[in-house]
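User: Before I run my own analysis I want an independent prediction to cross-check against. Here's the chain; please return only the structure tokens and, at the end, one sentence I can use as a sanity check.
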Amino acid sequence: MLRLLICLSFISLNAQEWERSFTAGELNEENHYLGGSEVLQLVGHQNKLFASVGYWQDQSNIWYGGSDISLGWSQIIILKHPDSSWTVDLDLNSYYLRPEVLKEIIFKKDHEGNFLDAPDTLLITAAYSSNYIISPVVASAFVRNESSDSWDESIIYQGSLPAGEDYSIRDMELYTDQVTGIEHLLISVGTKGIFTGSYNPTISGKIEWSSEPEIGPFSIRPLGITISHGSLYFSSGNKLFRRNDGVSPTYSIVHDFSDLNTNINSAVGGIRGLTSLESEESNNSMILMWCPNSQSKGTIYRLESNEDGSFNRVFETKISLLVEEYLPGTSVNYVLGGYNDFLKIFEPSENEYVHIVGFESLIQEGNFPQWNEYYSGALYAVRNSNAEYSIKQVNESITFDDPPLVATRCYVKSPFTNEDAIYFGGFDPNGFLSTNKAWIFKKIISLIGDINNDGVLNILDALQIVNLVLLNEYEENSDLDGDNHISIFDLLYLVNLL
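Assistant: Structure tokens:
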């Protein structure tokens, strides 16, 4: 044992905090092209990482200068191991430009309300297809078939032009009606409405979609759906809706931001990033980013419920002011954020759970790199348990020579065993040509085996495990082999890591 510890004392493995995981515009090992202008979603599923990649404003697409009609359409890409390369798992083709939603959904009941023998975990993406010349416009869901490593397509809705925001699919949420007990997958299809799906394993894709929306049409596409304290909520423009459960469900407006702005720019959206905070708060509370128009400053509000089901609005921060502090000398004219939910993660350095939310900033003045007047770096805000905010940056910093990142759109905790990391993805073309601008980085939170959290694997970590073995004590972060007790095997596991 002493000889082993002496050997370990000469070994030190430094943590690398940030790594680039995906760069658009490359051929993978199978000679398959992986490009894209933006990474829209990141999802862990079956111990693998999936990302949805869009080609809006990418010149490989025929609408933006491409010459091959088979290239430049939505892709779902997959990372099977943190040290492997990304590969294409699904080419949507056929004019599907942006897969804006990608989620793991766990069905527990069938379409009749009966419990399944075992839950069925599905990975689902959705997008609309249109050539913008002739109808119909088709909004479809794609469900991954785990047995064949393929995807099954089903049509949610099809209708006439125009396309764009009218068919933009931004969110979906699985919800059990508290009156009927039926499990519904609610999905937003642009301004057309909120449609519902139920689990039916006898059909392709396993989801049976309603022929008509449960609510709709809308003037502004919904951008978020969430569940808080047993009720389902969604946002559209400046209004927050709650579902009233039953055989014939209805919806009520439970909060209205019209006092702040009555005219919402539909491309910006109004209420964005709607996320439940119920696990942190004793009452029914939600958080969101308010972005009504081209003068948006990215204001964060918390909504706290009243006994009558309405909500009080609580100001938390204005992202534009935080960015001006982070980038001294700049003036922030516009902030767009809350592309997806606020992500709850554990922050070891603070020993508490925090929430992160991404955004982009249009800046003036200051000596910082820009892309079409947007700050080139990818920023995100961190909210602690006291509703205090700080600004962080993907890859810590960016230079004038680095490729622009612009927007942090999505983030997810690593699905890989023995990797404590968060993956970030993004970019936003903002109407400008953006060929191969999609990106994914990962931030390593801590080293597996770094028992004392000093950023290196060395003799001190080994000595701590030895001490626990001798004292017959247990600490979860030292249980490297996951057998619920500390032994010589944990020490051997650490040696293997070194």
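Sanity check: Confidence is low (pLDDT under 50) at residues 1-15.
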